[in-house]
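Private note to self, pasted from the team thread so I don't lose it. Backbone tokens:
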């Protein structure tokens, strides 16, 4: 969890830990999407996701450390080919 890094010194190692946590969270989210899509298909229901909503891949994860602030930008590609960027700022 990103919150567990609050108060830690901002180092290159912490930056890598944050990046790996972001990958873990996105992979968990993708797995949840896939499970929902499969459940919808099995039940014969219309999928709750469109191609614009389904994450296909992580394109990049950029971290920026400035004093006691960590900015994380994640670029995702959806099944429709659209790029989505998410920016989060964590005050350390």
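Design output:
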């Amino acid at each position: 969890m990103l919150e567990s890094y609050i108060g830690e010194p901002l180092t290159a190692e912490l930056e890598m830990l944050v990046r790996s946590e972001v990958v873990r969270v996105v992979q968990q989210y993708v797995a949840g999407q896939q499970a929902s899509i499969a459940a919808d298909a099995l039940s014969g229901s219309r999928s709750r996701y469109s191609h614009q909503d389904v994450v296909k891949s992580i394109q990049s994860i950029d971290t920026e450390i400035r004093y006691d602030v960590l900015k994380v930008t994640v670029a995702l590609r959806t099944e429709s080919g659209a790029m989505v960027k998410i920016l989060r700022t964590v005050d350390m």
